[in-house]
Structure formats: structure tokens, C-alpha cells
Design brief:
heterodimer, A: 430 residues, alpha+beta, Alpha-Beta Plaits, Gyrase A, domain 2, Elongation Factor Tu (Ef-tu), domain 3, 6-stranded antiparallel β-barrel, 10 helices, 23 strands, globular, B: 117 residues, OB fold (Dihydrolipoamide Acetyltransferase, E2P), 6-stranded antiparallel sheet, 3-stranded antiparallel sheet, 5 helices, Glycine cleavage system H protein (chain B), Biotin_lipoyl (chain B), lipoyl (chain B), GCV_H_sub (chain B), GCV_H/Fam206 (chain B)
């Protein structure tokens, strides 16, 4: 007798699990059952994975234990084939790099590159109150943007601390998509579910069924245009359109995390590899998490878990522009207003170093021999050819002032500068 | 002959050059800075003699043998990427004149080193 050990949406995901179990000598059967109906992209196949009854316990242990519950994106096998160095990140096996971080950064800055960011979480809120609900849970003003537009925003707890930073898409007057950090999917979903009780809205987590490819760089538009059935030029910065990409229904969004122009393609997970392979075929170079981290830091963009977390507010993280007190009630407003009135004690700043020693997360920051904060993110910027970092420091320290970072046993001078450190081809909001 | 330490450094028994292994440079990724020590410094086997910064991490280089640093590879100041491109050639880092020949015997051959990776 065979027994169902797991149910998965998408055939590719099912085959990844099949391979894993077979590598332990367990026979596997895949049974296609219902269609999973994705709220945006339509349907894909649901698969049941069956193993012999006497192997059931062993298979369960492998899937929970050996995999440590670590998930695969729909592009995992493609990454392996491309020779990527794979790391575990936010509960997913992700490509760290393919040909090398510096080269991948240059590809994106000078031409075009692409990232598998399918690990990101997507939730759909639907119902008469969808927009009112989204506006209440985020700090930025969601009600004033148009259908077809996206905002970047914080989502806060009662104390004004970040639950997450995210993108919110206005798909229709009654449909909204939240795009959240992979590490926060479960936490965010339960936070949103809790807050949705007072609204006429239903919330659905479609993270596992949604693939996401970011195509970024000054040549992103001309490279991508032949593959989509919409005129990309008509999609403004922080806007999106529903379109077919290589004949696959998806969302094409002019957003990104690199400081360059570019698009993020939301696709049904099971069909994401078709688009990825086509992009590879036309010469788009893949870039991994290593390059993504360098690019986002050069562009002055925050990384949740490094630069901010539940204990840091958006005002402290220097994204006060994304907190709109005048828009009406929102979750965390009271605490943020109080902090604004009392004044900030610390805030996130960018620093640039003349030395070649590189500041890293957690290193201490000093001024006049006194500890004033710590490094939240640091790297070597291949674009500026200097080390750069985000530091959380006393709010009294101004732009242009110098601080010292303790790098191993050396106090290294760093200058507080305006971010972004580098502005690429990224467009302006029209 | 090139011999290896567990900590991924190599030591050439004729030229006294020290560098990091192919495996180590691969793990470290793009090297952007080699914090070269001063010539004349006495070092003990196993102690940190310098750090290498790559884009993603900093790595320590340990002395594979005790002795005196008699030369550093100044080329690495302007071209740290040599450590990635040619770890056993142009990417050598320092030269250490060994003070205790017995320590050289304790190092691994290339075959032994590769086998334990």
C-alpha cells in the first residue's frame, strides 16, 4: 500500500521532493490531483507524493529532519545546473553566487542581470475592505495610490517596531497583494490575519504557488520587452501591469532592490522556470544573493533582520518618508507619533570608509572614544571601490562627521554620508 | 615542494612563500583587500598573521610554520584579486623563513590536504 507523505502545488516542486526521497532509496509515486486555483495567475497542478507504507515514517523524517524544513524555490534545479554556490537563507536553499559576486554586481550595474527571488512571500487580501485594511496595517499612504501602483512601506507592531518592510500592490479596488520578506512569511501572515478580523477581507498566503524573477539593470527594459505582450515603457516606476511573459500570465512590476531600472516578474511557481530559461537563453546573466546584498546596500536599501527588526522603528531606520501620520489611523501610529514628538535617540546612517578594511554586521561604532552604535550591514562596494556600511548611531551625529568602527583590533575612520551611496539607472516616480 | 596546513595555507619549502589554497580562495570569493603584515615580524605556527577581506567575509591567515616574515607580496596592495586568480603563483602573500624545520614535516602534502577536505 502507498501512503501520501506530502501534497505540493506544482510538478517541478514535486519532482524535487521525489529526487530527494529517491536519493535515500525510497520509491516514490507522484499523483496529480486537483487544480490549484491561484487568485491571480489561474490554475496549476496539485501533486500528491506517495511512498510505500512501510517507508512512510522514514520519508517523513527525511522531509522534516534532513531537509530541516528548508524549502526549494521552483528554480532550484536550474541554479544547481548553472553551477551556483547554494546556501540556506531565510528557510530556503538559495544561490549565493554563480560566477562571482563582483562580476554579478557589474553585470547588473552595466547591463542586465536577474535574480531568483521566489523565496519572497506573497499574500492576497480580497474583499470590500481590502484597501482600507491594507492602509490600516502599513505606515505609508496606500489609499491614495492608484490601481496598478505599488508602494514600499513598513508594517509596524503596537510599539512602532518593524514587523516587516514590504511592497503592497493595488490590483483592483477589492484586491491587494502584499510582498514580504521570506524569513517573515509566517509571522507576517499571522499578524495580518489578526488585524484583518475587523475588516471585511479574506487573506490568502500564495507564497508557495508564486515564483518571482527580478530582471535588473539599465538594459532590463530592452532585454525583457520582446518576451512580454505589453509595452514596458507604459509601466512607470512603482507601477505594474498584468501581462503575459513568454506566454505565461503574470504581473510585471517596475520595482527592484538594486538601484537600477528593472522589473520584477510574478509568475505561477510551476511555470517560473520557463521564463528563467528563456532569459538565460537570450543572454541574461543570473546573479545571486551575494550580489543582491551588495547592490541593495549601494542603493541605500534596507535589509530586514540586519538593518532593522521588531525593536527598530521606521523613523529610526531613516524611512520616515514612508510614515504618513496625516493619512488617518494605522497600526503603530501612536507609538511612532510619540517617538517623533520626543525626538529620535538613534538613527540609521550610511558611512563610507577610506581604508580597505570592511565593516561587518555587529561591529561597534565609536566617536571620541565613546561607543555610539553598531554596524547593521557592511560590504565592499565594487562600484565605489570603497567599503560602505549602514550604522545605527546616536541621532546627534550629523552628515559629514567622522566616526570610528572597530574592525577586529583596529579603529577605522568612517564618514557619515547621505544615502543612497550610489544611484544607478533607477527611474523616478512620475 | 608545496605543503599544506589544515587551516588552508600552503608553504613552499624552497622559496618559503606562503599563500592560501585553491579551496580557500574559492570559499572566500572575490578578495578585495589583503592586510599585509610588516616585514621582520616574528610569527608562531598557528597564530593569525593577517586577514583577507572578500566582498562577503573576512578570513584569517594563520602561520603554517614559525619564523620571521622576510617579504610580503606588495603586488597584492593594488591587485588583491591575484589571490583568487593565481593562489599558488602570483597570489602568494608572504615569505616566512622557518625557525623550526620539524614543523615543516608536520605539514600535509597536496594529496593529503585534498583528501581531508
Amino acid at each position: 500500500m502507498w501512503k501520501i507523505v506530502k501534497t505540493i502545488v506544482g510538478e517541478i516542486e514535486a519532482h524535487i521532493v521525489e529526487k530527494l526521497l529517491k536519493s535515500y532509496g525510497i520509491p516514490v509515486l507522484i499523483q496529480k490531483t486537483d487544480l490549484f486555483v491561484h487568485p491571480i495567475f489561474g490554475s496549476s497542478v496539485q501533486c500528491e507524493i506517495l511512498v510505500p507504507e512501510d517507508k512512510y515514517d522514514e520519508a517523513t523524517t527525511i522531509l522534516q529532519g534532513e531537509g530541516k524544513g528548508v524549502k526549494y524555490t521552483p528554480l532550484y534545479e536550474d541554479h544547481v545546473k548553472l553551477g551556483a554556490k547554494i546556501v540556506e537563507f531565510a528557510g530556503f536553499y538559495m544561490p549565493l553566487q554563480y560566477e562571482g559576486i563582483v562580476q554579478e554586481v557589474l553585470n547588473v550595474r552595466k547591463s542586465v542581470g536577474m535574480f531568483d527571488v521566489s523565496h519572497m512571500g506573497e499574500f492576497i487580501a480580497e474583499g470590500p475592505d481590502a484597501i482600507r485594511f491594507a492602509d490600516y496595517v502599513v505606515t505609508n499612504d496606500f489609499s491614495s495610490i492608484l490601481v496598478g501602483d505599488v508602494i514600499y512601506t513598513a508594517m509596524c507592531n503596537e510599539k512602532g517596531g518593524f514587523v516587516d518592510d514590504l511592497l503592497v500592490y493595488k490590483i483592483s479596488p477589492e484586491k491587494v497583494m502584499f510582498v514580504v520578506n521570506a524569513a517573515n512569511i509566517e509571522k507576517d501572515f499571522s499578524h495580518l490575519s489578526r488585524l484583518s478580523k475587523n475588516f471585511d477581507v479574506t487573506l490568502k498566503n500564495v507564497s508557495d504557488e508564486t515564483g518571482l524573477i527580478a530582471v535588473q539593470g539599465p538594459k532590463a527594459q530592452e532585454t525583457l520587452q520582446p518576451l512580454v505582450d505589453t509595452t514596458l515603457e507604459t509601466i512607470g516606476y512603482y507601477s505594474f501591469a498584468e501581462a503575459n511573459v513568454c506566454g505565461i500570465r503574470g504581473i510585471v512590476s517596475r520595482t527592484g532592490y538594486t538601484g537600477e531600472d528593472g522589473f520584477e516578474l510574478y509568475l505561477p511557481a510551476s511555470e517560473t522556470p520557463i521564463v528563467w530559461r528563456k532569459l538565460i537563453e537570450i543572454g541574461v546573466k543570473p546573479a545571486g544573493l551575494g550580489a543582491r546584498d551588495v547592490l541593495r546596500l549601494e542603493a541605500g536599501l534596507l535589509l530586514y533582520g540586519n538593518d532593522m527588526d521588531e525593536t527598530v522603528t521606521p523613523l529610526e531606520a531613516s524611512i520616515g518618508w514612508a510614515v504618513k501620520f496625516e493619512k488617518g489611523e494605522f497600526h503603530g501610529k501612536e507609538a511612532l507619533l510619540k517617538q517623533k514628538e520626543e525626538g529620535l535617540k538613534r538613527r540609521l546612517r550610511g558611512v563610507i570608509l577610506e581604508s580597505r578594511l570592511i565593516p561587518r554586521h555587529g561591529m561597534q561604532v565609536f566617536k571620541d572614544g565613546k561607543e555610539v552604535g553598531y554596524v547593521t550591514s557592511g560590504t565592499f562596494s565594487p562600484t565605489l571601490e570603497k567599503p560602505i556600511a549602514f550604522v545605527m548611531i546616536d541621532a546627534s551625529i550629523k552628515l559629514g562627521e567622522s566616526v570610528q568602527i572597530l574592525i577586529r583590533d583596529k579603529y577605522v575612520d568612517a564618514t557619515v554620508v547621505k544615502t543612497p551611496f550610489y544611484r544607478g539607472s533607477v527611474r523616478k516616480k512620475s | 615542494m608545496r605543503k599544506f596546513a589544515k587551516t588552508h595555507e600552503w608553504f613552499d619549502t624552497e622559496s618559503y612563500k606562503v599563500g592560501i589554497s585553491e579551496y580557500a580562495q574559492e570559499q572566500l570569493g572575490d578578495v578585495v583587500f589583503v592586510d599585509l603584515p610588516s616585514v621582520g615580524k616574528e610569527v608562531k605556527k598557528g597564530e593569525v598573521i593577517l586577514s583577507i577581506e572578500s566582498v562577503k567575509a573576512a578570513g584569517d591567515v594563520y602561520a603554517p610554520v614559525s619564523g620571521k616574515i622576510i617579504e610580503v607580496n606588495e603586488k597584492l596592495s593594488s591587485s588583491p584579486e591575484l589571490v583568487n586568480q593565481d593562489p599558488y603563483g602570483e597570489g602568494w602573500i608572504v615569505r616566512i623563513e622557518p625557525s623550526n624545520p620539524a614543523e615543516i614535516e608536520e605539514l600535509m602534502t597536496e594529496e593529503e590536504y585534498k583528501a581531508q577536505l
